Amino acid sequence: MIDAMRQRLVHALDLATLGDYDAAKAELEPLDDPISGRLLLFIQGLEERDQRDLRARSMLRHEVGNALSIAQSNIEGIVDGVLAPEAARLEGIRDAIVGAGRLIAERPKNSIAESPSTTISLAPLNICALIAAHAAATAGMAEAKGITIVYETCGARKLACENYYGDAMRVGQILRNVLINAVRYTPPGGTIELQCSLDGGRLHVRINDSGPGIAPEDRERVFEPGYRGPNVGSAGSGLGLAVVRQLTEELGGHVDVRSKPGSGATFWIDLPMVSLATTSD
Q1: Model pTM greater than 0.85?
Q2: Do 40 and 66 fall within a single domain?
């Protein structure tokens, strides 16, 4: 009896070592003794850790891949003479490459799952220039599909815009993911409109595409990790909008989508408008 129990415990450990957690748990669950119960809890903990690690690695691969895709499409367009090396576009390329490097540098040495929260680094920046840079950088990817990105600023040029206090990389990730999502869903020849405004101490960014739209039952689901809409085809991982919601909330903001099937989708990004003048009072 003891030998049979020992064999089952060892077999469960071997299965867990191979990553077959379901079979390991199935081996232990029928057993009724303290050792098997503790071993079952240990294996469940290992499974949860591996799942967190897998999700975090997928997010990292997605974000670095997005940034490098933006940089690559623009550099190729400039080299081929299709895109002009204008200042905003070059700033967008730089921000994408620097952002990818920072994401990789933030990865923990042992397990990426050791870092449950996002690192937020606040610094002064020109929020209007940041939005313009990401609009110009994404335009390179959009033009390859014959899509036009139109960026309409509020035109106020307020001191608060020029002295915004925030995390340029995280705000850039939010913009990049929504814009790439819009490019992915907008058909060739379509238009993506980007607008920003200030109201009541909040920064509002509106990104509207001319894609197929989102069904009412899917509007909340688009922010779930891994969810992919029915019109995306083979592209997309379903992670981009989940990253947008996570980062927006960690920055103290909110993101929402409004859409009617067949009439495109409009994403509203709301962020706290903190200026250097405010923080110094």
Answers
A1: no
A2: no
Q: Token digits for 92? A: 């967008």
Number of structural domains, the chain?
Answer: 2
Q: Provide the 8-state DSSP code for 33.
A: S
Q: How far apart are CA 81 and CA 159, in angstroms?
A: 36
Q: What is the pLDDT of residues 182-208, one digit of tens each?
A: 998 899 999 999 988 877 778 889 999
Whether residue 111 sits in one domain with residue 42: no
The domain that holds 204 is classified in CATH as 3.30.565.10
Q: Please, are residues 135 and 149 in contact by the beta-carbon 8 Å criterion?
A: yes
Range of the domain at 10: 2-47
Report yes or no: 174 and 247 within 8 Å, Cβ to Cβ: yes
- Residues 251, 123 share a domain: yes
Give the model confidence (pLDDT) of 5-22 as tens digits: 788 888 888 888 888 889
Burial (Cβ within 10 Å: 0-12, 13-18, ≥19) of residue 126? middle
